[in-house]
Write a structure and sequence with these properties.
three-stranded antiparallel sheet, alpha/beta, FAD/NAD(P)-binding domain, eight-stranded mixed sheet
């Protein structure tokens, strides 16, 4: 049997520190930050990265996937309704037809496939990292996130007085589920109204969830169950088609903002090269126009 290569402990530590530090420096400023790595956040990040945008996911847990690993009542079958099975086909997730318009996939298999597809698209993930606040710019436009290590928030304040760091982005997607963490921060500042999600009603909830997915404040898009929390939409329980299609729509809405931003950058550089000021002004004007 071939022996392992001779590598010392310090080399291993150096490799880990070097890789993480270089990546963090690269993603201090991103096109899009997705807060939450559940199914809607993963799909949104994947679709944007496939279009060539620089996308960072922030996840508070050690694992990715949210509730997509398991179905209802600790049983690991996850269901989707038509037409969301097309997303499963797109990612290569096997499933069975359980009834007219209803399909079931194995949760661990589906979730691991989705995570792999997202990372293969070029998305970078910082897990064990907790969203703390938003970065705000002119007219309270969301321009990034403030984050800290998850364990810092789990310990008593008296022994964890650790300042967070800020990460900038042209657009932020709130994919934090029922908590709607990013939207809730704006609500606390009276910048956004949150209604709270309603009781379970599958037939109504998923269509409304996808319909309402989009920008709710300049620079902030909500997806997944965060949409239900913001708009007072019924919950849908252990079915995930709405999550998947909401994530795809969130990516489409983000792409509109990002594409216009890059067009503005190109035109501006041809004009006079005054990058930052004119970019911010053009981006804000577009973002404000998209708020319903």
């Amino acid at each position: 049997m071939q022996k392992f290569a001779k590598v010392g402990e310090s080399q291993i530590t150096s490799a880990i520190v070097q890789d993480f530090s270089q990546k963090l420096l690269e993603y201090v400023n991103s096109d899009c930050i997705v807060v939450g790595a559940g199914p809607s956040g993963l799909i949104a990040a994947r679709d944007l990265a496939q279009k060539g945008f620089k996308v960072l996911i922030i996840e508070a847990n050690n694992y990715l996937g949210g509730g997509f690993w398991i179905g209802g009542y600790l049983m690991n079958g996850v269901t989707v309704r038509e037409p969301a099975n097309e997303v499963l086909d797109e990612i290569g997730i096997p499933y069975r037809k359980m009834g007219e318009g209803l399909y079931l996939a194995n949760g661990p298999h589906a979730c691991s496939k989705l995570i792999a597809a997202t990372l293969d698209a070029g998305v970078w993930v910082i897990n064990m990292t907790k969203f703390d606040d938003v970065v705000l710019r002119e007219n309270n436009r969301v321009a990034g996130t403030v984050v800290n290590w998850t364990p810092v928030g789990a310990l008593p304040r008296a022994i964890t007085c650790v300042d967070p760091i800020a990460l900038e982005a042209k657009v932020v997607i709130d994919a934090t589920g029922h908590d709607a963490c990013v939207a809730s921060i704006l609500a606390k500042r009276n910048l956004l109204e949150i209604k709270g999600f309603g009781g379970m009603w599958v037939d109504e909830s998923e269509d409304l969830l996808v319909e309402k997915t989009g920008q709710v404040h300049p620079g902030l898009i909500v997806t997944g169950m965060a949409v239900a929390t913001v708009f007072g939409i019924p919950r849908m329980g252990p079915t995930f088609g709405g999550m998947l299609l909401s994530g795809k729509k969130a990516a489409q809405e983000a792409e509109k903002i990002l594409s216009l931003s890059y067009e503005t950058v190109a035109l501006r550089r041809n004009a006079d090269g005054q990058d930052s000021r004119r970019y911010n002004q053009a981006h804000w004007q577009y973002a404000a126009s998209k708020v319903k």
